[in-house]
Amino acid sequence: MRGCKTGFPALWDHWWPGAEAREADLRALPDAEFVEAIYQRYLGRAADEEGKAYYLRLLRAGRGRVRVLKDFRRSAEARRYTQYRQRRLAIADFLRKEHPPLLPTELRRLPLPKPRIVLLGTCLAESLLQVALELGWSMRHYLMDSGLQEVDRQIVADAFDVVLVNLTLRTLLSMSVEEGDGDLFHLRPELDMGQIQAQAVLNLQQVVDHILAAIPPGLPVFFVSLLEPPPQVAGVLGRNRQGSLYGLVRGLNDALEDHLAASPQGYYLEINDIRQYYGDASVYDGYLSHYTHNGLSPLSVQGEWIARDILERLEGAMRVLRAEDPVKLIITDLDNTLWRGVLAEEDEIVPWQHTEGWPLGYVEALLECKRRGILLAICSKNDEGATRERFQQLWGQRLRLEDFCSVQINWQPKSQNIAQILRTTNILPDHALFIDDHPLEIEEVRGAFPRMRFLTGAPERWRHVLLYAPETQVARVSEESALRADSIQAKAARDLAAVDMDRDAWLRSLGLALRFDRIVDVGHSRYARALELLNRTNQFNTTGQRWSDAELRDWLASGGWLLAARAEDRFTNHGLVALALLRDHGIEQVVLSCRVFSLGIESALLVEALRQMQESGHADFVGHFTATGRNDACRDFWPAHGFIQDAGGSLWRGSLVPDAPTWIRSEGG
Q1: Are residues 312 and 333 part of one domain?
Q2: Measured between alpha carbons, how far is 156 from 161 in angstroms, rounded to an integer?
Q3: Which end of the chain is more exposed for a tag (fewer CB within 10 A), N or C?
Q4: Does residue 295 sit in the same domain as residue 316?
C-alpha cells in the first residue's frame, strides 16, 4: 500500500484492550486478532505472515492460549524486545527530568477513563499503534489509505468515544497530479504547482467528507494535520516557501482546518508543533526517506514522546469539547510574578529589565486566556496607589489594569482578597487558578480554598501551562468572550450604585433590556455561544447536563428548540447570558450566567418561554431539576415561579405564567 511501511492490505485492523485489560483480555480475542495482539504487545511489531500462520495452526490444533502466551514470551525475540523496552524507558525517564512534556497536567484534577479510539490511517498510525499498546489505551485500528474506498462499517458509536484519522499525503497528491506521481512531482518545473494545489484541496475536501459520511453521528472525528516538510528543498538561496512542496502542504493544512471548522462532527488536530517541540532529527522520516512519505518513526525516545503527546492532545481535546473542569478565572500576584523583582524596593525602574523574558511570555499567555473568555484578576500585597503607577510604567498599553475584572491591591491576607474576587465574579473556587511566586502565600490561600488550583515555582513554566492545558481552552471563542471582563466590571459598578438605593429603585435604574432569540437549528448565529453557555455553567443550571455538539444537534432535530436571552444595561452589553431548552410543553434545562445573577433575568426568560409555549397550544408545563451539588443557586427556581413538585421526583408542574419583572424591557430577536 502506498504511503505505508507495511505490506498489509488497504483495510485491516488491530485490537488491543486498555491498561486494565491483561492477558485474560488477550485470550478472549478471536484467533487472528489474538495472534496480532501478542505480536504487537510482546514484540513491538505486526505479525509476519509465516509466524502468524504458525500460531494459527497451533491454536486450531488445540494448543491452549495460556501455553501459547508462555512460549511466546520466552522466545529470544520477545526477551530482546523486553530488554530493549527497559533500556528505552530508563533513558526516557532520565531525559524527561530535563525535558518536560509539551502538554501540561498541572491543572488536571479529574481522573477520567481514556477515550476508546478508532484509528484510521497508515504511517503515523503505526507509531500511534505501538505507543498506544504500551500505554494501555483502548484502540481499534483500521489501516487504510486516504482514497475513496469504503470505510469499515464496524465503527459503531456505542463501542467508541472518538475517531482519529491520519490522512495519507502521497495518496492525496497522486490523486491530484495527472500522471499519478505523488512522490516527486514537486521537482518537475513544467508542472503548475498552483493548479496542483487547487486540485489537491478539492480532493482533500472530498476525502474528508467521504470519511465523515461513514462515521456514525455522535462520534467526534479528529483529523491529524499533515506533516509539513522543512522549507529547504530548493537550497539555501532558493525560493522555498511559495510554489514548493512545503507551501503546498501548509496550504493543505490550512484548507483542512477551514473545511473542518464548518463541520458539526469533524475537528482539526495540529501535531506539527509537537514534533517541532521534541525535534525532527530522529523522528521525521523525510530526512531519511522522502518528503512526501510524511511519516514519523516511533523508534527513538522522541518519537515515542510525540506519539504519546498526540494521544494526550486527543484526550485533551475531548475534555475541551465536554467542558470538563475548566478554569474560568486566573488570579495573579504582581511582584516576581507579573514582573521581575519587588518594585517598591527599586530606586529607579527600568521597565525592560523587569518585563523582558519570562514575564513578557507570561503576560502573552494571560492575554490569550482573556481572549478565550477566561477572566483575569489581581491579588497583591502592596500599596495600591504606587503599585498602579508602577504597573502603568512597566506595561503601558501592552497590558492594562482594565484587562482585569477585579484588582485587589492592599495588605490584607490574600485569602480575604480572593474571597472578594470570587464574590465579584460569582465563580466557584473549583474553577479558579491562583498564581503566586511565594509558596507560603499559596498555602495560606489553599487553606481557605482547598478546591482551587495553584501554580508556583519556576515562572518559565506558567506560560506553557496556561497556553496548552486543556482546562484553559474552549471549543470556540464566542463574541461574549471579549465581553466577560467588561461584564464583571459592570457588575461591580452596579453593586456600588446599589449602596445608596433601595433594591426596587436600583433595579429600575439599570435600564436592563433583554433580546430573545429562538434557535431551532445549528445555522443560527448564536448556536455556538448557546452550546458554550450550556457546558460552562454550573451554579445556575437546573440539571447540570452537558451536551456534545452532536447531541444538541440531534435534540434540535427531534423538535427541541432553544430560547436565548441577550442582556444589556446602562453599564455594558453582556451578550447571551441565559438559555432555556424547550420541547413540547417541557422546559428541560435553564441556565444563567453567574455574571448577571440577582437581576431577574431568569424570571423574564421563563415568562417568555411559557408565553411562547402557550402560543403553541400548551396549557400545562413541566420543568426539570436535578441537584448536582453545585447548583444551589437555582434550587428554588421552580417553586418561586408557582410550580409544584411531583412527589419525590425531579419534575415540577405549572399552568400559570408568572408576572414578568417590571424593570426589564423585553423584545424579540
Answers
A1: no
A2: 10
A3: C
A4: yes
**Are 214 and 194 part of one and the same domain?**
yes
Query: Residue 452 is part of a domain; what is its CATH number?
Result: 3.40.50.1000
Sign of the Cα torsion 50, 52, 53, 59 reads: positive
Contact, 333 vs 391, CB < 8 A?
A: no
DSSP-derived secondary structure for 513-559: EEEEEEE-STTSTTHHHHHHHHHH--SSBSS-----HHHHHHHHHTT
pLDDT in tens, 41-73: 788 777 888 988 998 998 898 888 888 888 888
**Sign (positive or negative) of CA dihedral 157, 162, 164, 165:** positive
Nearest alpha carbon to residue 218 among 163, 165, 259, 153: 163
Name the residue range of residue 193's domain. Answer: 114-321
101-126 tens-digit pLDDT: 788 989 998 777 889 899 998 766 77
Examine the domain organization and report whether 200 and 338 are in the same domain: no
Question: Is residue 41, in this structure, part of any structural domain at all?
Answer: no
* 3 state DSSP class of 147: coil
Residue pLDDT, tens place only, 242-259: 888 999 999 999 999 999
Nearest to 483, CA basis, from 565, 423, 573: 573
Measured at the CA of 484, the angle between CA 480 and CA 489, to 5 degrees, comes to 145
How many domains is the chain built from?
A: 3
Choose the final residue of a domain: 277, 294, 321: 321
Report the C-alpha gap between 249 and 97 in whole angstroms.
Answer: 35
Domain membership of residue 24 (yes or no) is no
Confidence of residue 283 (pLDDT cuts 50, 70, 90): confident
Burial track 451-470 (b if 16+ CB lie within 10 A, e otherwise): ebbbbbeebebbbbbbebbb
CA 529 to chain centre: 16
- Identify whether residues 149 and 256 lie together within a single domain: yes
pLDDT for the residue numbered 15: 40
Among the candidates 274, 298, 321, a domain finishes at: 321
CB 378, CB 331: distance < 8 Å: yes
**Cβ atoms 15, 140 nearer than 8 A:** yes
369 and 337: one domain?
Answer: yes
**Cα-flanking dihedrals φ and ψ of residue 31, to 5°?**
-50, -55
Nearest CA to 596 out of 572, 631, 628 is that of 572
Q: How many residues does the chain have?
A: 669
Q: Is residue 3 part of a domain?
A: no
In this structure, are 313 and 333 located in the same domain? Answer: no
The C-alpha cell at 505 is 429603585
Q: What is the pTM of this model?
A: 0.78
Cβ atoms within 10 A of the Cβ of 303, count?
Answer: 21
CB 558 within 8 A of CB 594: no
* Nearest-angstrom CA–CA distance, 261 and 554: 19
Contact 378, 334 (CB under 8 A): yes
Strands ordered across the beta sheet of 573-583: 644-645, 651-654, 621-624, 586-592, 573-583, 561-568, 512-519, 664-668
Using pLDDT thresholds of 50, 70 and 90, give the confidence band for residue 25. Answer: low
